[in-house]
Amino acid sequence: MLYKYCGHSGIRLPLLSLGLWHNFGSVDDFDTATQMILRAFDAGICHFDLANNYGPEPGSAETNFGRILRNNLSAHRDELFISNKAGHDMWPGVYGTGSSRKNLIASCDQSLCRCGLDYFDIFYSHRYDGVTPIEETMQALIDLVRQGKALYVGISKYPADKQQEAYRILREAHVPCLLSQYRHSLFDRKAQLGGLPGQADPAKSNFQIAADNGSGIICFSPLAQGLLTGKYDHGIPEGSRAARSSGFLQQNQVTPERVAAAIELGKIAKARGQSMAQMALAWVLSDERVTSCIIGTSSVAQLENNLKTLENLSFSTEELQRIHEIISDPQLSF
Fold first, then answer.
1. What is the 3-class SS of 175-209, one letter each residue?
2. Ramachandran assignment for 80, one of left (phi > 0), alpha (psi -120 to 50 degrees), beta (any other)
3. What is the pTM of this model?
4. Could you say which DSSP state residue 251 is in?
5. What is the rounded average pLDDT of the residues 255-272?
6. What's the rounded Cα separation, in Å, for the pair 270 and 264?
7. How much is the average pLDDT of 170-197?
8. CB of 37 within 8 A of CB of 65?
9. What's phi and psi for 180, nearest 5 deg?
10. Could you tell me which CATH class the domain 3-227+279-313 is placed in?
11. Domain locations along the chain
């Protein structure tokens, strides 16, 4: 495994981190989840990314991770970097969602209990809810650190203006933002560019603001929910995410433009001796501001395939130019 320092800190993270958003909940096979986590750890993936609503059912990914940690990795706690987040819908009532102090503090306490942990290595505000003052949310994160419930704090999916404000408040409290988490892939470059292709403002990009403030950047959904794996090149397979009635990839998002672009990108990957997924991950990591990329896997075989990304991370000028030509169409962006 390769590791990289996170922003202006002494923390190093693996280039590939394992996310438990999908495939680790109560509806999934526990033995497979166990095998993936243990194989990831053996391969040097020491960072595991959670959130309180991961499942389904919400909270069940934490419960399963806690069980795996207790049964298999309890002696290795200090070798692990465990992240958690709160802010999306979690429990009934008006306090079970959002970025309020009440939600974040209660969520952290519940998540620690489900995971069987005394503290998280990093705790994030999972989103800016559009209502709660940034001062309130950041103070909750600051207090979680001072209470010993988190070592570091982070923000996820914050718009540029609120992102900058969050950094200022945290820095003044001497609890700087260690990590900023954003969705990023060949089909979604808004966080990197500062808007859609052709309408971007690099100076206002989430990536550049994070870099200017010494925050590391960690990317999620690097394969665009499977569109960048070649899975949808010849239609929507039965049982795939897009074939389900609910989920984060809908059939109408598998557009002819995205499929055509994926096929062209696949040709470049093949010439590089990589799978489409491996090249897509390598491309995300090619931005020097990116600390780590969160992968989501459904099997050990898929995990092994993703790990091989690290065998070829460099791109020629010609490859980057051809990739840029393919992905410059704003219709590809989510």
1. CCEEEEEEECECCECHHHHCCCCCCCCHHHCHHHH
2. beta
3. 0.94
4. G
5. 93
6. 10
7. 96
8. yes
9. -120, 125
10. alpha beta
11. 3-227+279-313
Measured distance between the N- and C-terminal CA atoms of the chain, rounded to whole angstroms: 31
Tell me what pLDDT residue 202 has.
84
CA atoms of 281 and 313, how far apart (whole Å): 9
Looking at this protein, which amino acid is placed at residue 141?
A: L
Is-contact 98 131, C-beta < 8 A? yes
Cα–Cα distance measured from residue 53 to residue 58, given in angstroms and rounded to the nearest whole number: 4
- CA-CA distance, 197 to 311, in Å (whole number)? 30
For 290, the token pair is 């990116």
Determine the Cα–Cα distance for residues 189 and 23; give it in Å rounded to an integer.
Answer: 26
Q: How many Å apart are CA 98 and CA 131, to the nearest integer?
A: 8
How does DSSP assign 220-239, residue by residue? E-TTGGGGGGTTTTTS--TT
Span 93-142, pLDDT tens digits: 999 999 999 999 999 999 999 999 999 999 999 999 999 999 999 999 99
SS3 114: helix
Q: What's the gap between Cα 197 and its chain centre?
A: 22
**CA 184 to the chain's CA centroid:** 9
Query: How many angstroms separate the CA atoms of 190 and 188, rounded?
Result: 6
User: Alpha helix locations (H) across the chain?
Assistant: 30-42, 60-68, 101-115, 134-146, 160-172, 190-193, 206-212, 256-272, 276-285, 300-307, 317-327
When computed from its CA atoms, the radius of gyration of the chain, rounded to whole angstroms, is 19
92 pLDDT higher than 60: yes
User: Any idea which residue has 């791109």 for tokens?
Assistant: 315
| Other beta carbons within 10 Å of 247 | 12
